[in-house]
Structure formats: structure tokens, C-alpha cells
Specification:
The complex is a heterodimer of chains A (145) and B (359). Chain A is built from one helix and ten strands. Chain A has 145 residues and is of the alpha+beta class. Chain A is elongated. The longest helix of chain A has 32 residues. Chain A starts with a helix and ends with a strand. Chain A has two domains: 37 residues; 97 residues, Rieske [2Fe-2S] iron-sulphur domain (Rieske Iron-sulfur Protein, 3-layer Sandwich). Chain B has 359 residues and is an all-alpha fold. Chain B has a domain of 225 residues: Cytochrome Bc1 Complex, Chain C (Up-down Bundle). Chain B has 14 helices and four strands. Chain B has a two-stranded antiparallel ribbon. Chain B has a two-stranded antiparallel ribbon with strand order 3-4. The chains are: A alpha+beta (145), B mainly alpha (359). The interface between A and B is medium-sized, with 25 and 30 residues. The complex binds FE2/S2 (inorganic) cluster.
Chain lengths: 145, 359
């Protein structure tokens, strides 16, 4: 009697364990499947953001940086800077407000200064800064090293 | 009965034993008491779900789920296809009435303590259905690919990502990456027209089967007042009244669709700045509005995270209320649960009003 029971237990374990492993394998494949692979290009991407004529003092422009929007700004008297335009609050795309001369997010009224620092409203962190390189009369942006 | 002897009847009877179903239907009753009217809401939800399936299938005939063509396909549907505007408006309005009816149905069941033993599982399936209804709303909102919906989805999925532990993974799974892109649109489309309908139909069938099995719940206060003789026979009495309600809803729905068409707005541009006035659908505004009043950081956590965990705890409370409110099953309703319910409704209503007035 005892032997038969343990045999049954053994076979149950075998079948149950096998089933679990089988399920686990499939599930982990699905879990990985649903996240697409990174496009991989952004790392050293350098993008032409604007011509100098397109960016007069006290203006900003949203440009495409890989799959993300970036913002390049030229303050009234300062140097040109660029940031990822994704608000650190809940990921809206920010914009340059020439009346305030700084960066603003319309979604929940978040303000960033010209260094990308969150100065008021809900954003918890500064914007991620990009590097701006001027070549001739063109501005290129890339990730900071 | 004469019809029961007809050949056709006999043919089906021999195979399917319909007389049993007829007998069951003729015995089914609906309790009669002062809160009977609230029972209609379940049927209203069911009716609106049917409207959504029907109009949804019609919309599918023209809709194209890609960022390049989605907006244009909806504009074509609304502008050129005969009665396309009517189908889309009806789908949008019915979606809103559907969520509203779900809330009414849930809160009426809540206040009547319909969740008490032995109907805990019915309550659970109902809770799931409400979650699915919100999922339908969230996924459907993005499909026209207009600016407001695009950024509302960016904000909404970011909120999902702030959920501790699994939030990041779920957020990325929903979006199909870090940003809202064409992949997000494909996913939301699949979720909206295949995944959610499948799950919803299964859970709905279970919900309805449980109600047939257990009969309708009566509020504790009315149990002594209503007797089996007074109960309303479901068929045809209650059914016909419900049908009248459906007709009324249908009229309201058509009037809304004709008099107040749904805006399409401007096409989403993923590389444009977010416009002011981003708002989710009203049934999410009580959350988004409340989040606005939280400071950026609360102790160690970001304000959003605290808010979201708060809402999850609220949801968990509703889910578990059959287990928390033990007294109700013994016929002793605890007023505390009524007070909590009223507070939840007040909170939601105040936040929604604030979202649409203060902004
Ligand atoms: S998303 Fe920018 S302030 Fe909320």
C-alpha cells in the first residue's frame, strides 16, 4: 500500500513538475516577447537639430532625437542648450515659452529653467540635458558622454 | 399549450429540452421592494455592452490601426461614410454611459450589501467587469490618434509606470517600449477589440450564471417586507419593463449622438509639444485631479506613487468588502460601510467637478 502511494506521489510530482516547467518556459518567453528590443541607435546618435537662422534668440524648437522628442533652446542672451523634451513628471512633451523665457510643460503646469532644472510645478527631476555642438551654421545634438 | 405540441417545438424539445428553460424562466422572479428600481442597472449595463459590440464591429469596417492612417480613417468614417458619424458618436457616448451605468450598478449593489454571503463571487466578477470597462475606455481613447488622446495616453501610461514593483514592466508592455508610438496603437487596438472583449464575455457569462443560480439579492432592510408572492415574475413582467428602460436609453443615446457629436480634434504629432488642457476621460479625472493636489514628494516617495498606491488600496477595499463586512451576512449591516461608500462617491464627484471647472 505504502509503495503504491509513493509511486503515485512520484508520478504526480513528475507530471506536476513537468507541467510547471513547461508553463514557466512559455510564460517567460511571452513576458520577454511583449517588450520590443531597443532600436539601439540612440547611443551615439548625433542629430542635426536646427540651423542658426531657424533659432533666433528667445526661441526653442522641438526636434526628433531617435524615437524621442528633444528641445533645443536659445535664450535671449545665453548659449544654446538642448534637452530631451520629455517632462520628468508624466512624460508630456515640454515647450519653450518666449513670454517667460524658459521651458514649460502644459500638462500640469511644470516649469524648467534654461538649464533644464525643475523650478516649479510637479516635475520631480531636471530634464535630461543633451550636448549641443555648433558646426558652421548648424546645431547638432547628441547624448552627453 | 398549443405551440408546445407543434412539430417545430417537438423537434427542438427532443434535442434541447427547452421546456426546462421555459419552466426556469417562468419561476424566476425579481424581489419587489422600495429599491427595486436599482435592479434595472444591471440590465442597462448589459444593453450598453451589446451596443458597444454592435457599433464596435461596424467601426472596424473602416478603422485602420496605424499612426499614419488611424486619424484619417476616423475622419473619413465621420465625414464621408453614410451614417459613419452616427456610429462613432453612438460608440463614444455609449462608452461613457456604459461606465456610468457600471458605477451605478456597483454602488447600488454596494449599498444594498448584495456582496454579502453567498454572493461574494458575483461581487468579485462584477468588480473585474468594472476594471475591464475602464480598460476598454483607456484603450479605446487612443485609437483615433488625436493630440489630446495621444498625450493623455502618455500621461496615463506614465502613471501606470509609477506603480511600485511591476508598474514599470506593465507600463512598457502597454506602450511597447518607452514611448507612445505606433506599437502602442497596435497594442491598444488588439487589447480593445480582441483581448478585453474575450475576457469580458467570459466574466460576464460567469456573472450572469451566478445571478441565475443564486437569484437576486435583497437588501437586508427589505428582507422581511418582500415575500415570494409579491415578487415580480421575471418573464414577461420584469423583462418588459427592462425593455422599456432600454428603449429610453436608446433614445437618450441617439439624442446625445445627434445633438452633441464627439470631437475628433487634431491629429497627434509625437514630435510636437503637449497642448494645454490635456484631460483623460471623465471616469479617470477623479484620479488625475487628485494626483494634481499631491506634492512632488511625500516623505520618501514621489507624490504620484503615493497617490497611485492610495487608489490601489481603495480598489482593494472594494474588492475585499465582502470579507470585511462580515456582519452583513448575519443580517446586521454596519453603518460604517455605508459611510465609507458615501465618502468614496463624494470624493469622486467632487474631483470630477473640480477637473471640469478649476481644471
Ligand atoms: S507631465 Fe509635465 S508637468 Fe505633468
Amino acid at each position: 500500500m505504502e509503495r503504491r502511494l509513493s509511486r503515485r506521489m512520484f508520478s504526480n510530482l513528475l507530471v506536476g513538475g513537468g507541467l510547471l516547467i513547461w508553463l514557466g518556459t512559455i510564460l517567460q518567453a511571452i513576458f520577454r516577447y511583449v517588450i520590443p528590443p531597443a532600436s539601439g541607435q540612440v547611443g551615439s546618435l548625433s542629430v542635426l537639430a536646427a540651423k542658426t537662422t531657424e533659432l533666433p534668440p528667445n526661441s526653442g524648437k522641438i526636434v526628433r532625437y531617435g524615437s524621442s522628442p528633444a528641445i533645443i533652446v536659445r535664450p535671449p542672451g545665453g548659449e544654446v542648450r538642448a534637452f530631451l523634451a520629455i517632462c520628468t513628471h508624466l512624460a508630456c512633451t515640454v515647450q519653450y515659452r518666449d513670454d517667460l523665457a524658459h521651458i514649460w510643460c502644459a500638462c500640469h503646469n511644470g516649469h524648467f529653467d534654461l538649464f533644464g532644472r525643475n523650478v516649479s510645478g510637479p516635475p520631480p527631476r531636471p530634464l535630461e540635458e543633451l550636448q549641443v555642438v555648433t558646426r558652421g551654421n548648424e546645431f547638432f545634438i547628441s547624448k552627453r558622454a | 399549450m398549443k405551440t408546445q405540441n407543434s412539430k417545430v417545438w417537438q423537434w427542438f424539445e427532443e434535442r434541447l429540452r427547452i421546456s426546462e428553460i421555459v419552466r426556469f424562466l417562468s419561476h424566476k422572479t425579481v424581489p419587489r421592494h422600495r429599491y427595486t428600481a436599482w435592479y434595472y442597472f444591471g440590465g442597462v449595463v448589459l444593453f450598453l455592452f451589446g451596443v458597444q459590440v454592435f457599433t464596435g464591429i461596424l467601426l472596424l469596417m473602416y478603422y485602420t490601426p496605424t499612426p499614419e492612417a488611424a486619424y484619417e480613417s476616423v475622419r473619413f468614417l465621420v465625414g464621408e461614410v453614410p451614417f459613419g458619424w452616427l456610429i462613432r458618436n453612438t460608440h463614444s457616448w455609449a462608452a461613457n454611459l456604459f461606465v456610468l451605468a457600471c458605477f451605478c450598478h456597483m454602488f447600488s449593489a454596494y449599498f444594498m450589501r448584495a456582496y454579502r454571503k453567498p454572493r461574494e463571487i458575483t461581487w468579485l466578477t462584477g468588480f473585474l467587469l468594472l476594471g475591464l470597462a475602464l480598460g476598454f475606455g483607456f484603450s479605446g481613447y487612443l485609437l483615433p490618434w488625436n493630440e489630446l488622446a495621444f498625450f493623455a495616453t502618455r500621461v496615463g501610461t506614465s502613471i501606470v509606470s509609477t506603480v511600485p514593483l511591476l508598474g514599470g514592466y506593465i507600463g512598457e508592455t502597454l506602450k511597447g517600449g518607452e514611448m507612445v508610438t505606433g506599437l502602442t496603437l497596435s497594442r491598444f487596438f488588439g487589447i480593445h477589440v480582441a483581448l478585453l472583449p474575450l475576457i469580458a464575455v467570459l466574466v460576464l457569462l460567469l456573472h450572469l450564471a451566478l445571478i441565475q443560480r443564486q437569484g437576486m439579492s435583497e437588501p437586508i432592510s427589505q428582507q422581511h417586507h418582500s415575500s415570494q408572492e409579491e415578487a415580480i415574475p421575471f418573464f414577461p413582467h420584469f423583462f418588459l419593463r427592462e425593455a422599456m428602460v432600454w428603449l429610453g436609453i436608446m433614445a437618450v443615446l441617439l439624442a446625445l449622438s445627434i445633438l452633441s457629436p464627439w470631437e475628433l480634434g487634431t491629429k497627434a504629432d509625437p514630435f510636437a509639444s503637449a497642448p494645454a488642457g490635456i484631460k483623460p476621460e471623465w471616469y479617470f479625472t477623479y484620479m488625475s485631479q487628485a494626483l494634481k493636489y499631491l506634492p512632488g514628494r511625500i516623505l520618501l516617495w514621489e507624490g504620484e506613487t503615493v497617490g497611485i498606491v492610495g487608489f490601489m488600496l481603495g480598489g482593494l477595499y472594494l474588492l475585499l468588502v465582502p470579507l470585511l463586512d462580515r456582519g452583513a451576512a448575519r443580517g446586521k449591516p454596519n453603518p460604517i460601510f455605508t459611510i465609507i461608500g458615501v465618502c468614496i462617491i463624494l470624493f469622486m464627484v467632487v474631483m470630477i467637478i473640480l477637473a471640469y471647472t478649476v481644471g
